[in-house]
Amino acid sequence: MKKGKKALVLFGALSLVLVLSACSTDPVTSESTGIWDHYIIWNFVRAIKALSNFFGGSYGWGIVIFTIIVRIIILPLMFYQMKSSRKSMEIQPQLKALQEKYPDRDQDSMRAMQEEQKKLYAEAGVNPVAGCLPLLVQMPVLIALYQAIFRSQELKTGSFLWMQLGDKDPYFILPVLAALFTFATSKLSTMSQPDTGQKGMMAAMTYGMPLMIFITALNVPSALSLYWVITNAFSVGQTLLINNPFKINRERAEKEQAKKDRERNLQKAKKKALKNRKK
Questions:
Q1: Is 195 exposed, middle or buried (0-12, 13-18, 19+ CB in 10 A)?
Q2: Secondary structure of 221-270 as H, E, C letters
Q3: What is the pLDDT of residues 150-195, one digit of tens each?
């Protein structure tokens, strides 16, 4: 049931991404029509241009600041999503135990397992779908920001630091940084996850996604590479702030140690009680 709902939500998010991404690749201007182009993407472009005026008309700094502002605005959604994911992560051992308890896939076994899963979710305060819902809200915003940069000829003109925003990074610095920050985000996210038997899949995501970002960033204008660097760098800080794996693992280790101490003290108390009875 959980997998079915999550798959449905993720499919919906993916469909939304494809629809919005494929709306148009034509340059967006004040003459563009339609809700997506005129009211969303064009206003994103205008906002970036306005911010650029505070930095001597540097569109590069406009992209940097606007990207950070957008990420800050959607931070509450990310906070909710990451906290929900953390709760789900914490009950993975119990979910795995339930799957082992009901190895058969007949209708009665599946129904019994689903009932126990519902009870486990309720006790842990986890909504299996809630962690995916913020994705449906934030994804159009991030796509609009991406398209505002990709489809605005003005935002891809001019220079920023060592590069021309409309050309590829000549020194490959931005592609390398984008890949490194993507790897750091994925690595930090997986460091605190318990072993659920999916190490191969997580490793493929951890190393595969940065590679894809790197290859893509090599072949797009520097303005887009700059966007990826900033948004992925923000994600690193966001993960350390909301879902810090070092803190999570330390708290988990403390809980495990406290549990072992309680069990050890209980054993000592039982032995002591047994000796007293013999006396």
A1: exposed
A2: CHHHHHHHHHHHHHHHHHHHHHCCHHHHHHHHHHHHHHHHHHHHHHHHHH
A3: 788 787 777 788 888 778 888 889 899 989 998 888 888 777 766 5
Q: What is this structure's pTM?
A: 0.69
List all residues 6 or more positions away from 214 whose beta carbon is below 8 Å from its beta carbon: 175, 176, 178, 179
Closest CA to 60 of 168, 172, 160: 160
Cβ neighbors of 68 (< 8 A, separation 6 or more) are: 230, 234
